[in-house]
Amino acid sequence: MAGIYIHIPFCRQACHYCDFHFSTNLSTQNEMVKAIVKEIEDRKDYLNEEVNTIYLGGGTPSLLTSDQVVHLLNTVFANYDVCSHAEITLEANPEDLSLNKSKELAEAGINRLSIGVQTFDESKLAWMNRAHDANDSFGAFEKARQAGFKNISLDLIYAIPDHSRERWESDLKAITDLQPDHISFYGLTIEEQTVFGRWEQQNRLVQVPEDEAAKQYLFAIEYLEDRGYQQYEVSNFGKDGFHSRHNHGYWSGIWYLGVGPGAHSFDGESRRFNVRNNPNYIKAIKEGLPFYETELLSRIQRINEQILTQLRTVKGLNLSMLQKDMDVDFQELHADFIDEISHQELIEIADGFLRLKSKGFLVADEIAVRLFFSE
Ligand code: SF4
After folding, report:
1. Where do you find CATH 3.20.20.70 in the chain?
2. For a disulfide at 16, which of 20, 195, 229, 326, Cβ 3.0-4.6 Å?
3. What CATH class is the domain 2-250?
4. What's the whole-model pTM score?
5. How many angstroms separate the CA atoms of 305 and 271, rounded?
6. Which atom of ligand 1 is nearest to the CA of 11?
7. Radius of gyration over alpha carbons of the chain, in Å?
């Protein structure tokens, strides 16, 4: 099984916290779609397995016209062996989802929407420079359901400065009242190259203290699980049968093709990184010039990536797989550290898996790094 990721590098306006690759100059959207279509065709031999998931992410894929979505998907269908029950997700911003647009997306073959709600607090939406208000979010969800979408994910942000715990609880209540099939939530991180990064340097923004962020995170896990959403990864929760297959693919190390500027690909041995610049990407694709860099991963790097990604899942780190791959008793190798984090109630070991507990998810990456093999 393999996955395809299509990066749509345009946004209506720049959210103050975002450091993804996008441009607010929409004038090259048509040219960009043509370039991505060409990349999909040119790389048709990259995957020789059946494609199980297609994900249009960004940026803001819902800025595409329905015809452009159809064109992209038809190119994928014509060039890859896509399974008949593929999960096909499109990330959408609430302001883009009219009833008509939702119906057209469903007709185009999109069967899962991931809608960026972030918060229902109007003043925080404006502060973050989001292009929508809370009513747009309610309206988008309702229209997507009316258009027939049976698999909808909503995104929230926690640890927003000056956002009280009560406010966070009211966001969680509003989102669960809608009964989406899947919920993702992320702590607000302040990246240097963003407006918020500048504000922080100028002392105009103070991040939520770590212990408060942790309380909001742990509160949300309990809140969502009480309402029937199973946590399956650090930030992801789904109702039964609605865990994201695309995410699972990344975590289980399957091959994936990433097209568009800034997209990554993985073929089991190397990672390929497309240039993060719209005009350069379009020019290179048109003229047949290189538009990516490749990094060959060593066996140890690949195993360390598995440790990092598996640990972030509720299933946990498969210890017998490590024993087989590395011919080493992993528990014995890290006996002191494992003992220490067990006592801190960050992990548990059961049925051959090392699993993070809720508190452990807060420091998942730090724990993974301590468990890495060295070259
Ligand atoms: S809409 Fe999404 S990708 Fe675009 S700037 Fe905002 S957070 Fe970033």
Report:
1. 2-250
2. 195
3. alpha beta
4. 0.96
5. 12
6. 4
7. 21
